[in-house]
TrEMBL record:
Native organism: Aeromicrobium chenweiae
Molecular functions (GO terms): DNA-binding transcription factor activity; transcription cis-regulatory region binding
NCBIfam families, per the entry: mycofact_TetR (TIGR03968)
InterPro entries in the record: DNA-bd_HTH_TetR-type_CS, Homeodomain-like_sf, HTH-type_TetR-like_transc_reg, HTH_TetR, MftR_C, Tscrpt_reg_TetR-type
Residues forming coiled coils: none
Keywords: DNA-binding, Transcription, Transcription regulation
Record-given protein name: Mycofactocin system transcriptional regulator
PANTHER family: HTH-TYPE TRANSCRIPTIONAL REGULATOR RUTR, MYCOFACTOCIN BIOSYNTHESIS TRANSCRIPTIONAL REGULATOR MFTR-RELATED
Length: 202
C-alpha cells in the first residue's frame, strides 16, 4: 500500500498521490475526517478540485492510497511463487510481505489504518477494498488447486487471511511498540497450527 507514483508531465511537482495524502492526513488529524472536504484538501495542496479528483475519485479513497496498484503488485508476487512452495507457505509469506513497510513509513501507515478501521464513514467503502484484497488470494488459491475462485476453499482462505490481518492491525494500533509483521506472522502461524496446513497443500 505504497503512496509513491510517477509525476504526470505538466503538473506541479509538489502534486502527487503522496503530497495529497500528507495534506489530507494533516487535515483529518486537525479537524476530523467527516469535517474535512475535498475543497479543503485541494486548497491545502494548492490545486483545483478537478485536479484533486484525477488522483482520488473521492475523499474515502484517500486513506487507501494507491491500493489498486498495490493489489496488482500483490497479484504478481503471488503468481511468481514457485510451484513447489506449499500453498500455505505462499499465502502466509505473501500476506506478511504485503504488509511490510519501511520504518519511515510506519507512522503515516498507522494513522492510515486507524482511519480505515475506526471511521464509520469509511466502513462501506472499506468493504469494497477488502473484497478486492480477498479476491487476489482466492484467485491464487484457485489457480494452485485447479478450483474456481468463488469455490468454498479459495473464498474461505481469502476471508480468513483478511480476518487475521485485521486482527493483527487492531493489536498493532493498540500496542505501538509491537511489530506489525511479527503479529501477522504469529497469527498466520497459529491458524496453521490449529487448522492443519496440510489442507492447503496442492
Amino acid at each position: 500500500m505504497t503512496a509513491s507514483s510517477a509525476r504526470a508531465q505538466g503538473r506541479p511537482s509538489a502534486t502527487d498521490h503522496a503530497a495529497i495524502e500528507r495534506a489530507a492526513f494533516a487535515l483529518f488529524a486537525e479537524q476530523g475526517f467527516d469535517e474535512t472536504t475535498m475543497e479543503d484538501i485541494a486548497r491545502a495542496v494548492g490545486v483545483g478540485r478537478r485536479t484533486l479528483f484525477r488522483y482520488f475519485p473521492s475523499k474515502n479513497d484517500i486513506p487507501w492510497g494507491q491500493f489498486d496498484e498495490s493489489l496488482e503488485y500483490f497479484r504478481r508476487q503471488l503468481a511468481a511463487v514457485p510451484a513447489d512452495v506449499p500453498l500455505a507457505d505462499a499465502v502466509h509469506d505473501g500476506v506478511v510481505a504485503f504488509n511490510r513497510f519501511d520504518d519511515a513509513a510506519l507512522d503515516q501507515h498507522r494513522f492510515r489504518m486507524r482511519l480505515i478501521l475506526t471511521t464509520p464513514a469509511l466502513q462501506a467503502h472499506s468493504a469494497i477494498k477488502y473484497e478486492a484484497w480477498r479476491r487476489v488470494i482466492a484467485e491464487f488459491v484457485a489457480q494452485r488447486l485447479s478450483l474456481e475462485p468463488d469455490g468454498q476453499l479459495p473464498r474461505l482462505v481469502g476471508h480468513v487471511s483478511l480476518a487475521l490481518s485485521v486482527a493483527a492491525y487492531e493489536q498493532w494500533l493498540d500496542e505501538p511498540a509491537s511489530s506489525l509483521t511479527d503479529l501477522l506472522d504469529q497469527g498466520l502461524s497459529l491458524l496453521r497450527t490449529y487448522a492443519g496446513s496440510e489442507r492447503l497443500r496442492p
